[in-house]
Design brief:
This protein has 100 residues and is of the alpha+beta class. The protein is 36% helix and 23% strand.
Length: 100
Amino acid sequence: MSPSPTTPSNADLLARFQHANPNHHLWNNNGTWWLHCTVHRPDYTKERLRESLETGDLAEARRRRDARLLELAARADLRLSIRPARHAHAASTMSLQTAA
């Protein structure tokens, strides 16, 4: 699915994402970081992806998240849905503060 002139490409979305909250799309579940994101398919369906990053280290989780998002962005059959976070949820803020 190719983007229209008004729809940003996956590369544009990833560039925008990198300047937003550095922990966007990350969730700490009992000490293990997870990736959460949404992808859109050519048949106009969408899917929420939740994948364990299998690490308790925040810096490593960010690296693994970035690598996985790049893999997803390279796929022609998927379109990422990435929006900068407007505000942090209290629970994720607490998790991030304890992990830092």
